């Protein structure tokens, strides 16, 4: 059964890395041919999180940083009158981090090939010992102030360098803030892309967190919580105001929908193949639950008839929805125990239901879905007798929470862009286009298909160099439109994507 789950990684076609040198339709050696217009790009500063830093394949590494969207923009602005753009490059292409010699962050993912067949084996973490020591401060200043893992309020949190090793490498002091360090550079132009992690950590953890809407104290938030929209609006407004001081202008970028990225769209929710005999045997195991336990709970007024219908387990011959746990259901564990059901079974049934088309199964579930929870018990199939844990499923209710917060953040972003006469990039709409039909370019089509689509790296969340080049073009086009500039865009087909490899250059 597990082999069937992994079919999403089988038979994948990959695209080769090619030169990253941009091609233009017009010569660029004529003085004044390109201009940054009203945008002074002599000291361009980009502020944000992993998307700004160039994070890819589950790690931060040199090649990803060199293809970060702000670095690409700076390279193109240099054809006009843009200035130098510096980045806090990692020490290698492995991507892991060391803290006093102990590895504290994993290396990047690679896609190895079967030596016999040449077929992809699925993403694996690259072997090797990284050489980036986080206790060794990098010498700045750095124009790329993208900090992987940062949420909106983290940018204004004193001492954040002690909590985030990526910022710890570049912070000017242990009490500094990301925003203050960025402002100290006196940017002549800026890009701000922040807020993704304020909902993304909740989403990628399958909703294992709290929607903190209504809680205005972010110091009380957990790692996977959704940031209150008013907190976001307050800190974002402060960030825009601070970055605008002395700058000729800037660009604000909004938050994409999580359903646009392959982390949530690769593993099909309907994924459990059963023949008729097996389906009947499984249904027999759940007959008592369906026919006696659920009616009992309804009769006692513990759950509604609608919730009872949602909780019913029914498998058929063919491909089925898996069983899952849902923490938004009424927890009936203690009630079941009081009715004489043993604690282990009661815990299993307490928040049990079958998935449906409103649910999203996350990419990391591919490693457990269909496997045996107990290798010695052939009946302990995860997704059948053993439910897929809540962390692997983003339910419809959880998606609504993410969507509501995202819409609120995006309203703040576009409102502040308009009020301050700044360029605005609608990344949400752009990535929706990538996800729904794709974006054509000279060499093909950019889509959100995992591995083969070209847009997203092996972590299913962050772009490939090609995806970052597409993002850079979107921003360049808005800068050109807003500030009367003629910064050249790049041919995104000249930027790399995922390749089959068993080797890496450190």
From TrEMBL:
This protein's superkingdom? Bacteria
Region: Disordered; residue ranges are 120-143
Q: Name one GO molecular function term.
A: hydrolase activity, acting on ester bonds
Q: Which UniProt keywords apply?
A: Hydrolase
Which SUPFAM superfamilies does its entry note?
SGNH hydrolase
Q: Which residues form a coiled coil?
A: none
The annotated regions of Low complexity compositional bias extend over 128-141
Q: Which InterPro entries match?
A: SGNH_hydro_sf
The entry's protein name is GDSL-like lipase/acylhydrolase family protein
């Amino acid at each position: 059964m597990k082999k069937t789950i992994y079919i999403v990684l089988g038979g994948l076609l990959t695209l080769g890395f090619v030169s990253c040198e941009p091609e233009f339709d017009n010569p660029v050696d004529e003085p004044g041919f390109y201009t940054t217009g009203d945008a002074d790009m002599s000291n361009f500063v980009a502020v944000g999180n992993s998307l700004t830093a160039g994070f890819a394949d589950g790690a931060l590494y040199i090649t990803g940083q060199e293809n970060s969207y702000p670095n690409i923009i700076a390279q193109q602005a240099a054809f006009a009158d843009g200035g130098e753009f510096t980045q806090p490059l990692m020490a290698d292409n492995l991507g892991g981090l060391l803290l006093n010699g102990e590895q504290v962050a994993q290396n990047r993912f690679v896609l190895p090939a079967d030596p016999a067949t040449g077929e992809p084996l699925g993403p694996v973490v690259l072997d090797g010992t990284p050489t980036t020591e986080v206790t060794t401060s990098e010498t700045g200043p750095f124009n790329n102030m993208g900090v992987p893992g940062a949420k909106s309020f983290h940018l204004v949190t004193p001492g954040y360098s002690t909590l985030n090793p990526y910022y710890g490498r570049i912070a000017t002091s242990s009490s500094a803030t990301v925003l203050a360090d960025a402002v100290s550079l006196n940017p002549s132009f800026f890009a701000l892309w922040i807020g993704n992690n304020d909902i993304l950590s909740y989403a990628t953890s399958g909703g294992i967190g709290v929607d903190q809407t209504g809680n205005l104290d972010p110091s009380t938030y957990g790692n996977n919580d959704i940031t209150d929209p008013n907190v976001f609006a307050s800190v974002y407004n402060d960030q825009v105001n601070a970055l605008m001081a002395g700058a000729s202008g800037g660009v604000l970028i909004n938050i994409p929908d999580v359903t646009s990225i392959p982390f949530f769209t690769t593993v099909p929710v309907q994924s459990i193949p059963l023949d008729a005999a097996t389906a009947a045997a499984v249904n027999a195991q759940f007959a008592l639950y369906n026919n006696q336990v659920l009616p009992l709970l309804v009769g006692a007024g513990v759950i509604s008839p609608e919730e009872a219908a949602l909780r019913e387990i029914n498998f058929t011959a063919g491909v089925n929805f898996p069983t899952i746990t849902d923490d938004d259901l009424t927890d009936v564990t203690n009630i079941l125990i009081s009715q004489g059901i043993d604690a282990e079974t009661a815990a299993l049934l307490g928040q049990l239901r079958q998935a449906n088309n409103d649910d999203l199964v996350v990419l990391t579930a591919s490693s457990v879905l269909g496997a045996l929870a107990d290798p010695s018990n052939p009946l302990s199939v995860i997704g059948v007798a053993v439910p897929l844990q809540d962390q692997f499923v983003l339910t419809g209710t959880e998606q609504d929470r993410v969507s509501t917060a995202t819409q609120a953040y995006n309203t703040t972003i576009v409102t502040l862009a308009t009020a301050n006469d700044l360029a605005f990039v609608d990344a949400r709409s752009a990535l929706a286009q990538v996800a729904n039909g794709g974006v054509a370019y000279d060499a093909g089509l950019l889509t959100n298909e995992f591995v083969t689509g070209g847009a997203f790296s092996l972590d299913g969340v962050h772009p490939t160099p090609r995806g970052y080049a597409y993002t850079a073009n979107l921003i360049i086009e808005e800068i050109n439109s807003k500030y009367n500039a003629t910064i050249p865009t790049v041919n995104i087909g000249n930027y790399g994507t995922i390749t089959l490899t068993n080797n890496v250059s450190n």
